[in-house]
Amino acid sequence: MRNTIVERSAQRITESGSNSAESKTQKSSPRFFQFARWFRRTGWRHCVAVVACCFAGFPILYILSASLNQQGTLMSANNLFSHVAIDNYIQLFHLPEQPYGDWYINTIVIGLSTAISSVVVGALAAYAFSRLRFAGRRVGLLALILLQMFPQILSIVAIYLLLTNIGYIVPALGIDSQLALICVYLGGALGTNTYLMYGFFNTVPKEIDEAAKIDGAGHARIFFTIILPLVTPILAVIALLSFIGTVSEYAVASTVLVAPQKQTLAVGLYAFVSQQFSQNWGLFSAGAVLAAVPVVIFFLFLQRYIVSGLTAGSVK
Amino acid sequence: MIQHDSSPSRKDIRKKKQANRVASQASTRIGTMLIKIVLLGLVDALSAYSAFMLAEQGNWIILSIVVATTIVVNWIYFRRDGLVAKYLTPGLIFLLIFQLFAICYSTYIAFTDYGTGHNSTKEQAISSLIQSSQRRVQGSASYKISIVECGKTLNFLVTMPHGEAQIGSEKTPLHEVASATKDDAGQAVSTPGCSTLSFNDLLSRQDEVTSMRVPMSADSQDGTLKTADGQTALVYKSLLKYDAAKDIMINTQTRVRYYDTGVGAFTSKGGSRLSPGWQINVGISNFRQVFTSQEMRGPFLQVLVWTIEFSVISVASTFVLGLLLALVFNNSRMKGRAVYRSILILPYAFPAFLSALVWQGLLNEKFGYINQVLLHGVDIPWLESPALAKIAVLIVNLWLGFPYMFLVSMGALQSIPKDLSEAAELDGANAWQIFRLIKFPLLLVSIAPLLISSFAMNFNNFNLIYMLTNGGPINANTNMNVGSTDILISMVYKIAFVGADRNYGLASAFSIIIFIVVAVVSAIGFRASRSLEELN
């Protein structure tokens, strides 16, 4: 009995020990058992992971291959990577009726402005809720959570009619104005982001701003030069999530933006591909790949922050 | 003297306050002050501009709201106290206009018949009816005209039957012109201050000229002048005549009378309506229609049930797959986890509307990769058969949603203290028991709220449905434009913005029903998750 326990603990020690120690002890055992053991411990995990990665990555690999296939139909796209040419990408920018270049720039401009303004607006509000004590603070927070459940797409009719009416007064903020679209998105910013930011702001110790206050710093300086640098991770997450959300948003953008050269990628590409689905496949794929590249790169670059941001955001 | 020390006089307090103010003013940098002034200046400029426009239109109510808001905003940022307002105002303004007001406005619209044929006031409807029903008056004289441009507006310079000249544009009815030059045939051809359009000008501005309607007089019943060639004009009169005293519309040709019977349009005794009508409050009729009308109740219930099924199954399937993967990956001995994770979250990073379109290609019946290559050339109607389309939607949503669940489950698993499972291991629990009795309940506490918000998100997952199946395949049993994979929100979008017959009122009523359903489910969910928290 005692022997087995000693053996087990010895085993545990070797397992947790460094790799070199592990390989030394295992050198004597036959190769097959070594593999079986490895498989039982972590090998099967790799199998599962590979299968899951195929499921997750395949559609993206497929669209990449289709974008490089100059034959350009849905049928021809099935021969993965049979052709590699960038014809589709070149042709994409020379379409007679679809201003892809404009869509791209519009999407980037609208996405970035919405992301940056949402972060600014959300950070200001989160700071107030986290650091200042005022009547209605708790009610305000609750109201924001409640508002989160009424996404803007539900009031899409009202937004459309509201912008139509604003357009009679200030044409630059009416239907078919990108500025108006950004304003609409900003309206949803406080509801979606404040609570996530509020949780993160709370993790910054209050002693820091109290110390700064004693040293004579005003509230603006505390906010901009002390708090903001400390909460950069959540700012990055919010900016990224709101950028992705804006890039993908279709319903509101399609009702607000009318002229083709003012539309975003979501509106334009959808109209383009739904006209002649299988014929335009190559061009659509190229457009999709180009549209996804900046988003995916940002995402992978910031993924560590995103993971912490998502779990911090869980309402407790 | 002693008294003076213990209770400082008002003078001293004021001095101290003044000193504080000077100190704080000295500490604010000029740069920040400048930014503040510039931003406020922009806001003020915008509201001054809209105030002018509003004043021009005589819209005094909104004008006063704009002015009041501007004054409040300036007051907030120029006074010293009121820190909270300074931080909350920027976000709150947008929230109030585009979220709160929009919600209230859609509630209001839900109780109206706003939509195609009912989108203006009664006065506008009357003038547009009279405008659009104009016909050439049989046997009326034709007038010799010249087109002249005065400033930037085009005018008809008309030679009347008795030889005198009159001038008028779309905005100003015909009136006498002081002096006009006439050609040999007695037709007025030019007038001081205006340039006459040459034949070539006429050709190049043909569309502009032929679309003009110049009123004969201030009374709209006298008709308008319209030209086809830029040289002669004919009188057009409205078929419809509005009798303001009796509030009836009369067709002058058929003598049919149309009455305002309270349905938002002029209606004849026979029941035919004149379009456009105007917007009226219809009370709960939109809601009543949803729940009681034969042709709408069936599709609505079907869509409601599918929406709930779709969101529940989506949350469950993504959570199960995400959690399983997180458990598999939650092993520090496994190598290459960072690489795997980067690939696994690709579906989350890829813009969702694109993913749905890509999957639409993959699942295409005739040419798609899944039928052609993976299944060796079969013809499975993934998106064309009602049952398979639902399955396809769920699979694609699993693909879209599992990375998020994977990430949050991973985070939650890592935040569970290791000593708990170690202690259980010492007590002889096996891996399944540790998971079921220790890790899962703890995990659920932190993830349950996320599951609820994921449910609410999927309930309104417009992009997936609209881009993947467009709600189809179309349900042949109903007259409504509703398919078997339509969820409530895509139905709202179709009712409001797709097709010729837009019904904003009904769409808003549906929005409100969605809101109520989501709110109720979330409330139940949050209550359950709170009791879950208390249990642990």
Summed up, the helix count of chain A is 15
Please tally the helical runs of chain B, counting DSSP H or I stretches of 4 or more residues.
Answer: 20
Label the CATH architecture of the largest domain in chain A: Orthogonal Bundle
Share in β-strands of chain A:
under 5%
Mind explaining what this structure looks like?
In chain A, 75% of the residues lie in helices and 0% in strands. Chain A has 316 residues and is mainly alpha-helical. In chain A, helix 5 (100-131) runs antiparallel to helix 13 and helix 13 packs antiparallel against helix 14 (281-301). Chain A is flat and about 70 Å long. Chain B is α+β, with helices and mostly antiparallel strands. Chain B folds into three domains: 2-81; 134-238, D-maltodextrin-binding protein, MBP (Periplasmic binding protein-like II, Beta Barrel); 292-535, MetI-like (MetI-like fold, Orthogonal Bundle). In chain B, helix 3 (30-57) packs antiparallel against helix 4 (60-78) and helix 15 crosses helix 17. The longest helix of chain B has 36 residues, at 294-329. At the A-B interface, helix 3, helix 5, helix 7, helix 8 and helix 10 of A face helix 2, helix 3, helix 5, helix 10 and helix 11 of B. Chain A: Residues 1-25 are annotated as: Disordered. Chain A: It is found in: Cell membrane. Chain A: It comes from Bifidobacterium aquikefiri. Chain A: Pfam families: BPD_transp_1.
Break the fold down into its secondary structure elements and pairings.
The complex is a heterodimer of chains A (316) and B (536).
Chain A: H1 2-16, H2 19-26, H3 31-68, H4 87-92, H5 100-131, H6 137-148, H7 156-169, H8 178-202, H9 206-214, H10 219-230, H11 232-248, H12 251-256, H13 265-275, H14 281-301, H15 303-312
Helix pairs in contact in A: 3-14, 5-8, 5-11, 5-13, 6-8, 8-11, 9-10, 13-14
Chain B: H1 2-6, H2 10-27, H3 30-57, H4 60-78, H5 83-110, H6 122-132, E1 134-136, E2 142-150, E3 153-159, E4 165-168, E5 175-176, E6 181-182, E7 188-190, E8 194-196, H7 199-204, H8 206-210, E9 214-215, E10 224-227, E11 232-238, E12 240-243, E13 248-251, E14 257-260, E15 266-268, H9 285-292, H10 294-329, H11 337-344, H12 346-349, H13 352-362, H14 369-374, H15 386-415, H16 418-426, H17 431-459, H18 462-468, H19 488-497, H20 504-535
Antiparallel strand pairs in B: 1-11, 2-3, 2-8, 2-11, 3-4, 4-5, 6-7, 9-10, 10-11, 12-13, 13-14, 14-15
